[in-house]
Amino acid sequence: MPRPRRGRGRGRGRGRGWRWALRREGPGRPFGDLYLSEIPHAKQFRPLPMKNPQPIELTYPEYEVLRLTDLEKLKQEQVAKKMETSRGTVWRLLESAREKVTRALTESRPLIISSKGEIKKM
User: What are phi and psi of 12, to 5 degrees?
Assistant: First the structure.
């Protein structure tokens, strides 16, 4: 008889927004699902003048973590609970998002907000 699954529980996020998943094939543990409250309306930002045309890509989970921590002033533990992931994952996403936004501003590069994974309405 199979053991019951423990952990985050995949059924808790129904009716709460969007689910983002990046599927990885091959060795290692597959990525879990992250829950987003909304899909961003803006898809890109372009500086004037543009010194470097090579864009920087910001993923939906990075955008969501940046929005929740910096705009809604939530703590990382609260963001992790809202997105149903660990605080460590929130920290890594936040560091990556802040680095990308800062690099786009200082190097005068376009910032593209992309899904880079599966998105489903919950």
Answer: -75, -20
Model pLDDT for residues 54-89, shown as the tens digit of each residue: 999 999 999 999 999 999 999 999 999 998 889 999
In-domain check, residue 3: no
Task: Please tell me the total count of domains within the chain.
Answer: 1
Q: What are phi and psi of 41, to 5 degrees?
A: -80, -40
pTM: 0.75
* Structural domain boundaries enclosing 63: 39-115
* Three-state secondary-structure class, residue 113: strand
15 in a structural domain: no
Contact, 49 vs 43, CB < 8 A? no
Q: Does residue 109 contact residue 54 with C-beta atoms inside 8 Å?
A: yes
